[in-house]
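The following block was generated as part of the benchmark described in Methods. Ligand: nicotinamide-adenine-dinucleotide.
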Amino acid sequence: MRALTYHGKHDVRVDTHPDPQIVNPRDAIIEITSTAICGSDLHLYDGVIPAVLKGDILGHEFMGRVVEVGPSSTLQVGQRVIVPFTISCGQCFHCRNQEFSHCDNSNPAEKQDMSESLYGHPMSGLFGYSHMTGGYPGGQAEYVRVPFSDVGPLVVPDHLEDEKVLFLTDILSTGWMAADQATVEPGDTIVVWGAGPVGLFAAQSAVVMGAEQVISIDHHPHRLELARQIGAKVIDYTQTNVLEALLEMTGGQGPDAVIDAVGMESHGFENFNPIDTLKQKVGMGADRIGVLRQAILAVRKGGRVSVPGVYGGFSDKFPTGALMEKGLTLRTGQTHVQRYYRDLLKRIEEGQIDTTFLISHTMSLEDAAQGYKNFAYNQNEWTKVVLKPKWAKGRQEAGRANIANRAGLSSAPGSVPAGSGAVVDA
Amino acid sequence: MDQDRSDWLHQPRPTWPPESRDPISSDPGFSAVNRRIDEHLSQGRVSRLTDQLTEHKAVAAATVLGLGALAGLAAYSLMGPSQPQVQRHAEIPRLPDDAPGRTAKQARFGDYAVAGRSVTIDRPRQAIFEFWRDFRNLSKFMENIEDVREVSPGVTAWTIRAPLGMTMQVTSRIVNEKPGEQIAWRSTEDSQIETEGKVSFRDAPGGRGTIVEAHVAYRPPMGALGQMVAKVFSAEPSIQSRRDLKRLKMLLETGEIATNKNQRGEGGKFQKAVERDIQNNIAAV
Ligand SMILES: NC(=O)c1ccc[n+]([C@@H]2O[C@H](COP(=O)([O-])OP(=O)(O)OC[C@H]3O[C@@H](n4cnc5c(N)ncnc54)[C@H](O)[C@@H]3O)[C@@H](O)[C@H]2O)c1
Ligand SMILES: [Zn+2]
Ligand SMILES: [Zn+2]
């Protein structure tokens, strides 16, 4: 099969690998129809997550058809499923508590040592996300082996096209959990740093949950425009003094909850970020926490801090004083996808949630390397990339968020441009 | 039947100041090499020494020391605290705390080095007991145990992975058994290493399943050399044993052992064992 393969920092290629097979009784093999590139993949691409090895197949947002099942799988060949990026057994203490991303049993025993010594406890298994989380071959491929297929995959109805349900696997659930962990109460202002896919879905979720005011912060004008389109106010941090603006936009009180949807590679020159960047560059396992520092300073006393943005190492100048003295609540974690996806699927079917507004490009899996490059370096225009293993090399279509598609459209709050899928020359 | 001599389990934690923590370094025949290791240890510089030895050798040496991987834990406890730490502790009288004896920074119990680990498994106590009681199941989750055969009731012959592709034979006899609660075993005299172990099972609080606590005690098998190797390579077996218990938990909770391999032929012995059991219609627990 063909699969997007890691060769080194900023070097990914589509290579040929053997087709996956059933290895354990609860496995299933999925033939992938759609898969996406995630902001988390960029951390691998940029080489800031350890233990990604040459030859690893990346990708953790994918869906497709069941083509083979192990003797203990409950799936049936031919079913159409979305597959959560978290691999969860369903039977350990954490899975039973709906903490699926903390599963004790999905990371192979010999792969647990690294995260156990780094974090005190081992991480669970994730698809295509370094050997710290199992070294499982990922889903930017034609086929994938899915362990515990009786627990993870969710069968989706045929009348919902791939693009509508694909993001249940990760970013939609992640945005929702980010808002859930921020707790939205009547009258609340929720502020989201990052208008990437996760930040956009977090902002939309906060709107759906009934926040009085949602504010998205980024510096890419087009991404901010998308945030405005789903009902958020926006701040461009290159133009505006963020802390002051947030106070003034909340009657001097400060936001009730803040969401860091940026993570360890935050941009900018404030909040000690350049020092963090230097440490990250020299490989000290340091995280860039510019956004997290700013969010903790911005949030009101007694407020909530929700962190879906991924961090992997250590940091300094972490504002412990503000965290304690303001009585803040900090909630974090990889997403417990299986906790949320059924409810979210229902909301998609009912039209409560828009899941395709952020797709800018759909392209052949064969062109995935180009997709990575653009998603990493042309962030303003490349807002979300969907890959199609079945498409011929060179085929590419514009999504609803594609700038070419939107020229001349008004960006008034709440306006949703109609139509999608204009064909763009590759 | 042999007696259960495993009263090391119930002995109190060693008190401070400790007796000479390293009987062998006072042995006049003991080599200068070991003293050098001691110096390194006390200065926290043991890594330089281990660096000179390949990982392969480390694994090999560690393996030969232990009965399966759990025994390797015992080797770890031989290291004990650094010299300055011992001195600091010696100056202040210590209150004996409530932690298990094996977690003491110094864990020698008479002649024996003792180590152990626990894991909580969300399965009924009796079922886990029965799984372990059939020692043939050990190779399904223990890395270094290749095969266990029942010789006669309560006596099993273990084939253990040794360095350089060789194997070692240990005959093990159950010396104490409380149904549903614990199993203790000891190697017989004709075994190639002297070791004993005990595993106990108790209900986890709040309906969380069963706490499985495995202890292994062993007498250093190869005299001074054995101890030296144990010191230098101590980390490896402790990692192994941690992994063994994790695999036991995986097998009993999920019916399989996690692997990232996606080719059937690349699944290791654990995956093959599960496959065999399914073919023969044997449910794990
Ligand atoms: N918790 C989870 O389970 C989970 C799941 C998916 C993604 N993530 C993480 O969420 C984060 C975002 O993912 P994404 O796909 O949206 O990535 P992305 O890279 O597309 O988006 C990040 C956005 O943050 C913006 N940004 C950078 N610095 C900023 C700053 N100082 N202030 C405001 N905005 C800033 C960037 O301009 C960009 O638009 C990543 O860290 C990713 O790893 C976590
Ligand atoms: Zn992701
Ligand atoms: Zn689990």
